[in-house]
Amino acid sequence: IVDEESVRQHLARGLDIINRSLAQPHGESPGSPPPLPPEDDFPPSSRRNQSGSGPYALDHDSQGDESLNIKEIIEHFASQNNVTFLPKPGKSHEGKPVYAFGRVSISFDRERVYALDRGSWRSVTLSDVLQLHSERA
What we know:
By secondary structure, the protein is of the alpha+beta class. The chain is built from three helices and five strands, in the order ααβββββα.
């Protein structure tokens, strides 16, 4: 991971934000963090695969880099859509942790996302989760 240039850049950016925050007098904001880079700046291994299986299949480049896991994909999707994505401590579905995607409770395994909709869990796409969140806002 340390050899990945994009990881080093994001880590340096995060450390810069922390340092600016610590340098500010108590109660003052260090300003907005720099914006996330456009999706085209993410390595090919983190982009959705158009020809793979399943709605969350990821590209594997010729060097065999590890791809993002489904949690990272959901985090990125939530961030792009200005929706909070947080764990719900003590909550689980079929042994998997439950997260709040805005106003929607979700859980996931390696390949699928499940949303709690009208009292029952169902398999959904990220677009479905975003729509459910919007309907509940």
